[in-house]
Automatic annotation (TrEMBL):
Residues 168-241 form the MDMPI C-terminal domain. This is Maleylpyruvate isomerase family mycothiol-dependent enzyme. Pfam families: MDMPI_C, MDMPI_N. GO terms for molecular function: isomerase activity. It comes from the Bacteria.
């Protein structure tokens, strides 16, 4: 997805989130975020939008304090803060529009342009919308192109070799014969763990283990928002479980 679609998707996903959980109990636990209530999750989402907006608006090249997405406790007795969430999403999208995709900003590793924050918070909002739906007990669905783009971003970030320095345990994934395929009717991905770094590509391929499902199911699987059970797995299921155990992100 291009820059304008990404920044627009921040608003779209927030609109879908607030509409989907209208009337939900903010005290409900979030199964995919242990220890969090729905209210805490929503404060995290809205705080994240405002934090990213400040980085883009000020063109900060430094990591700004992110207390607003870390300090999550608050009053969960009220209603879903729809207008507050939508205001933060619109503000971030508009600030990104004004900056354009190439504005220099802080970002992790070498992602030091505003386009990264547009992409990251579009997909961040998608996944946290799934969390909110789980907490509210409502169905989560996502457009096919959005789900595919979210999976592409996850793959790109997960294979960064810097992760080996941050978490040496991740190097345990590498080994001969270790390949994984994710297949949906509309798109597929291939993960190669056989070299000295992790590699991935789009497209079908034979693999040591293949998991098949809808794009939504595959997205929730790699983000560990749903279990493997219920998906079609062929080949070395233990490799799939080992991989999922080592790729926590988001």
């Amino acid at each position: 997805m291009d820059f304008d679609r990404l920044r627009a998707e921040i608003v779209t996903q927030t609109e879908l989130l607030t509409a989907g959980i209208a009337g939900a109990d903010l005290r409900a636990p979030v199964p995919s975020c242990p220890g969090w209530t729905l209210g805490m999750l929503l404060r995290h989402i809205g705080g994240g939008h405002r934090w990213a907006e400040e980085i883009v608006r000020t063109r900060s090249l430094e990591y700004l304090p992110d207390d607003q997405l870390r300090e999550l406790h608050g009053d969960d007795a009220g209603e879903v803060p729809t207008q507050w969430l939508l205001a933060g999403a619109h503000r971030l999208s508009e600030t990104l529009r004004d900056a354009g995709p190439d504005a220099p900003t802080w970002g992790p590793f070498d992602f030091n342009r505003s386009e990264f924050l547009a992409r990251r918070f579009a997909h961040e909002t998608v996944v946290h919308r799934a969390d909110a739906c789980l907490a509210a007990g409502v169905e989560f669905t996502v457009a096919e192109d959005v789900a595919a783009a979210s999976l592409d971003e996850w793959m790109e970030l997960d294979v960064l070799p810097q992760h080996f320095e941050i978490d040496p345990r991740k190097r345990e994934l590498l080994g001969p014969g270790r390949t994984i395929a994710l297949q949906a009717p509309e798109a597929s991905w291939f993960v190669d763990l056989t070299g000295d770094v992790i590699r991935w590509r789009r497209g079908p391929a034979d693999a040591a283990v293949t998991v098949r499902g809808s794009l939504t199911d595959l997205l929730l699987l790699v983000y560990r928002r749903r279990p493997v059970e219920g998906l079609a797995v062929t080949g070395d299921a233990s490799l799939l479980a080992f991989w999922l155990d080592h790729v926590a992100f988001g």
